Each structure stands twice: as C-alpha cells, then as structure tokens.
Amino acid sequence: MTIRPLPRYLVQRYHGWHATTYADNSAWYRRLADEGQRPRAMVISCCDSRVHVTSIFGADTGEFFIHRNIANLVPPYAPDGEQHGTSAAVEYAVRELHVSHLIVMGHSQCGGIAGCHAMCSGQAPELDEATSFVGRWMDILRPGYERVAGLPPEEQIPALEQVAVRVSLENLLTFPFIAAAVEARELSLHGLLHDIRNGQLTMIGEDGHFVPV
Amino acid sequence: MTIRPLPRYLVQRYHGWHATTYADNSAWYRRLADEGQRPRAMVISCCDSRVHVTSIFGADTGEFFIHRNIANLVPPYAPDGEQHGTSAAVEYAVRELHVSHLIVMGHSQCGGIAGCHAMCSGQAPELDEATSFVGRWMDILRPGYERVAGLPPEEQIPALEQVAVRVSLENLLTFPFIAAAVEARELSLHGLLHDIRNGQLTMIGEDGHFVPV
Amino acid sequence: MTIRPLPRYLVQRYHGWHATTYADNSAWYRRLADEGQRPRAMVISCCDSRVHVTSIFGADTGEFFIHRNIANLVPPYAPDGEQHGTSAAVEYAVRELHVSHLIVMGHSQCGGIAGCHAMCSGQAPELDEATSFVGRWMDILRPGYERVAGLPPEEQIPALEQVAVRVSLENLLTFPFIAAAVEARELSLHGLLHDIRNGQLTMIGEDGHFVPV
Amino acid sequence: MTIRPLPRYLVQRYHGWHATTYADNSAWYRRLADEGQRPRAMVISCCDSRVHVTSIFGADTGEFFIHRNIANLVPPYAPDGEQHGTSAAVEYAVRELHVSHLIVMGHSQCGGIAGCHAMCSGQAPELDEATSFVGRWMDILRPGYERVAGLPPEEQIPALEQVAVRVSLENLLTFPFIAAAVEARELSLHGLLHDIRNGQLTMIGEDGHFVPV
C-alpha cells in the first residue's frame, strides 16, 4: 500500500488542537460550516514554508481565502479551456465569494524567483527544458526579468521579487471580471513584500513604489 | 492609481505581530533567511478560508511547504510545456526541497467539490463552458465523479470529497520523480480529510479506507 | 466549567496591541488611569458591528463616552425606580462627567429599525409579545412609526432611521438635568445619521433637516 | 433651535476618514451594507472613554457586535414586558445574529463600580434615591457587593470590578436562550478585565480565577 498513516507527532498535535483550539472555537466553526465562508480578502502568496500570512495578520479562521503557489504568480487571462489553477482560484474568489480585496504578497529569499533569474540569465538550462514544470511556471515572470536585467548583478534578484508582485497585479487586471470589479469599486488590489530576515513588510504605496507598511 | 494601500486594521495587526511574534522569534527567522527552508512535508490543501493546516498541526515557521488551490487537486503528469502551477509546486518540493511527506488534505463543505458535482450531474451548464476557469480546473475530478454517481444523492458530495483526495494521490503517482521517490522510500504520501463542523480529521488508513486519526 | 478561555487569535492580537499601541501611549494611559477620564462628548450609537464612531471621528482614547444599544434609542425620562441602563449612562455623562456634547448617531440598514417597522406594520407578531426584549425595547420608537406610516412603502424604513434619531433627541430633552444644561448652554445636542454603504454622514442642520456634514 | 451642528473639528476628521479609511475599504463597507453583518462575537463593555475593545483586539469592521453600558452589567432575565435595553441587545445578538462568543469586559478605575461601592457601603445616599438612574442601575451589582464587603477596605473596589464581570456572566446564564445555546455548544462565554494603567488584560481561566491572557 502506497498511502501511509500520518506520522505520530502530527497525530498528537492534531488531538491537542482538537481539545483546545477546536474546543474553544467550536461554536464559530459550526457556524462557518453551516453558513459558509465569507472572507473579506483573497491572498496570493508563495508556498514557501517560511511565510505564513495568517500569522503576520493575526487572521481569524474564515478571514482570508488563500491561494499559494510558487513565487505568488498570476498568469495573464487565457480562457483557452486549459487547466489554470490560479485563474480558477481567482475566479472563485471574485465571482463566487465577492472578496473585497485581492492581496499579492511576495517575499525575500524566494527560491522560485532565484530560479527564474538563473533561467533567464542563462545559468539554468535545465529550467529551460519543456519538461521542467518550475521553468514553465516561471515563464510567467520572464517579461519581468527584462525590467531588472540592466541593474547591477547584486540588485537584480531583490528587484525581481518586487517585479513578481507587480507582474501578478498587472496580469490580474487582464481578467475582465477583475477589471470590472475594480472599476466598480467592489474590489481593490494590494501589493506586499515580506522580508523573512528582518520581518519587514513593504507595500506598493500611493506613488507606485514599495514603502514600509 | 489602481493599487491601494493596505487597510489600516491589517497594518496595525502587522505591527503588533512584528513587535511580538517576530521579536520573540527573530533569531530563528534570520536563520531561515540565511540557511534557506528545510520543510519536512509538503501539504496540498484548499484555498478555503476555514481550513488552516498550520493551525491544525501547530506548525512551526519553516515546517510545511504549502500549496493551496481550489479543492486540493493535483492534475496528472503532463510535461507538455504548458503552465502547470500545481505540478511546479510538487516538482519544487520533491526535487529541490526533498520533502519527506506529501500530504493531500481535503475538507467538508468544499465549494469546488459541490460545483464539480453540479457540473458533472448536469446542473451547472455555466461550468461546462470553455471559459470557466473553475469548471476546467474541476475537470481534473471528472473521472472521480463516475465513482460516486451510483450512490444515493445525499451521499454523493461527501463521497466526492473523499474521492478528490484519492484522485490527487493517484495523479501524484503518475509523476515519475514521485513514483521513484516513493519506491526509494524517500517520500511517503498521505491522504487526509478535515470536517469543518466537528473538527474531525480522518486519514486513509492501512486498509485504504478513511479512518479517524 | 461554563466560562471559556479567550480564542487564541484574540490573545495574540491583544499582545500585539500591548507591545505597540499600549507601549507607544503608556504615558497617556497612566494619566488617564490616575486622573480619570474627561471626555468632551457622549455618543449614543447602535451595537451594530459595522458602525464604529471612534474610527469615523479618529477618536483619541479618553475622548468619547460611548453608550451603544439597539437602534441608538433613548427612552423618555421615567424616574420610577426601575433599571434604565440608557438613562443611567446619560445621567452619568451629564451630571458626573459634564460632557459638553451629546451626540445621537443612527445608521442605515439597522436591524432594530427594520424590526420595529415590521412590528408596527403588523408583520412581526413575535415582536409584539411581552417576552420579546427587542420588541419591548423598540416600543420606544412606536410613536415615531406614526410619522412615517403615510409615506410610500419603500421610503418608510429610511425615514424611520431618521425619526429614531429625532425621537431620541426629543426624549433626551425630557430629562430635567439635560434641559437645564442645554438651557444654560453647558451642553449641546447633535443628531447624526451614518450611511454604511457610501460612508456618508448627515446631520440635523440649522433648519431641522438632515444635511450632509 | 436646540439641535446644534457638529463641531468643526469633528466635521474635518470625518471628511479625512471618508477620503482615507472609507476610500480604502469601500468595497468591504458595500458588502457589509448589502449582505448584512455577521459578527463572530458580542462584547459587553463599559461606556468609559478610556476602554476601546476594537483597538485592543485590532478588530475589523463587522467583527464585534458591541453593547456598552455603565459598568458592563447585565441584569437577570426578567421577561416582564418592561424596557430592558441590555437584554434586548443580548437577545438580538444571540437569537438573530447567532454570535458564537459572548464576552464581558470590565476595566479598572470604573466610576460605576466605585459609585456602587460607595452606595452599598452607605457613603453615597444620593445614589440610594429612587430617582437616581445610576443608583438603580448599579443595584444589579448589589448582590456582588456582599462578596467583597469582608475584604480589607483597599481591596474591595478592585475585587468588585472582578465581581461585576462574574455577576454579568451569571445573569447571562439566567436567560433561557443563552443557557440553551451554551448547552448546545453554539455559544461560549468569556470574562475579561482590562487594566487601564498598565494595559494588562486578565481573563477568567480554566480554574475560575482571573489570570493574565
């Protein structure tokens, strides 16, 4: 049998959670189950194990609809009948759940961004192969690489982390239902960048630059 | 300007996090930044705002590499040069991070599963359209619908929530690098289902059935 | 044990508040504790979770003495030895704290007002029962219903939201110590109405009509 | 004309709020207006200008249904057809909004508690008069005074602040619909005490004593 039982330390923690967090919040969890979710915001962030948006924002259960993928990327609108998991998540959040905010949160030391930089600068030919899922996924950020290629080498990757957030936001606006919701002031878009090392959070501010929150 | 500043209540909560959780753990966050992540497990779960795996398992920062999409689905292996965000996340977790566990966690009251059921039973023609991202994404679970279509109506959706976990695990095994890692005992697969209402967690056990954890 | 510990997410947020907002303002909080409060105004508003007067007016800690009840109602003066929580709050604000302003702030989409309208128009017999606390409380607004009953149906509830503010102000003036303080120009009364949807604030102006602030 | 226009400094702050906080959150405010509120918790706290629960808990708009009265008191269940504003608020929160938590939050330096202590210990005959709204309201806490009368004088008022929270919780349980909801695990009760001077928050813990949060 290929499927294995859960490691015991996770089983123990789960039982601890059920006896404490679940027990202390069971009335709310029942309501959430019976009435459905009504999140105020969708967050698109990275799969990276070091970045948990629910912790940073002290989020209650039911507060954020969260999609996590490599490098918090959103592809451009492409209604071609293919499987687009990120586009499906965005569509569900905006058209079904009517979230009021769409937050893209990038982070420092992102392995996906570093891989994209290596690929685009010719240092990672294996990512250029058609069979590389990570490479093909990071193609979304290829146009972004052009914006940083002229910078001093040591500045390029941090700049690309910012650009990844911008490209995702730009691509979000290519979805007609997002552009319409933004136009109708039913949805607002936000761009954030989290620094793992010093904990700082910056956001795209009024003038379009990243500024400390 | 299309991009908006972050709502104030989130800014305040972030500063509260930085002054407490970050301050209390900064030594660890610095190491995570400098040495990189080393997660033991990857978790694939749903975007749903009511299901946070980090809470249920008391996860430390750096412990789980988490991909979240609609209905915790994994498509079959398809190295066709297209953009597959889920496959990219799985590839990165297994081939770059060498996680030891791959956990698929479904949940009750899943809007994606309910939509898939409606679509496959002919009650949601809008999801059948080529332009429906949610519909096309849920096509991954279409073969699973066949397994529940003969059940009494009220049992079909709960059964489909279980089947979604099984289909994802089956599809994971179509990835050669996953099959190889499982074969080499470097990776184990796990299937979980979380009930939002009563907090119960079940898993695919030794005999292949879902049993309480 | 019937009393439960506080949910963890609130505990975390509290600690965040203590490490930031409290820490940054501790000198002022100490003075407020040692010297007592000296609010300039009392505000009477609704319990509704969507209306926070401290946010709308950027209120400092110690600035507003706030009573919140269903539909921001004040009963007429009735020194009958019974328990009148609203009258007690008003008495304390005017006679002990000597507030200079008494502000009644109503709001749109008020569940209490809608209930009162249903009750008075015969559509909610359960609110007519002696045991309905909400029904008996909304009796305060029964005389106000007569003022709107002749309007076109769709105008009645918005009109009743305005009337609720007027009735409360009229009832405030039946309290001898309020009438005396107003007469002596030691206290002024204000009537406001907040629209949740568009954020607009209107007030009872010079000519007695609601006008934009 | 008795009703006065709003002071200019409040008008200015309101316009500032509308141009910033409202503008940044308008999508959410529209949803709250159109879909109605769905607060997770009701909070009963004091009118005191120095205690703002939304600040302490970083609350989002729509998160807490808040009733504020003198000394955060709840009278016993008394379906006598009279006007009970606090009972109406509690009834609306539990039976209409189905809140999952009922939080009573007391605080230090409470003028109402000090008045109750003076009245019960014979030092404030004016509060004993039938016409004193504050005195009659504080009668709710008279049984609580007996529990502290034997303590050393300087400990009595702080102890009475704790007792006020306990009495309110005990009285809440005399409401049949609250007892039933607690029994059915659809509602949980919480007792908190906030110290204005040092910012500390204590709660009634597992063993029934107040402990730091």
TrEMBL record, chains A, B, C, D:
Catalysis performed (reactions): hydrogencarbonate + H(+) = CO2 + H2O
Biological processes, Gene Ontology terms: carbon utilization
Main EC class the enzyme belongs to: lyase
Signal peptide: none
InterPro entries for the chain: Beta_CA_cladeB, Carbonic_anhydrase, Carbonic_anhydrase_CS, Carbonic_anhydrase_sf
Alphabetic keyword roster: Lyase, Metal-binding, Zinc
Job description of the protein: Reversible hydration of carbon dioxide.
Family label: Belongs to the beta-class carbonic anhydrase family.
Name of the protein this chain belongs to: Carbonic anhydrase
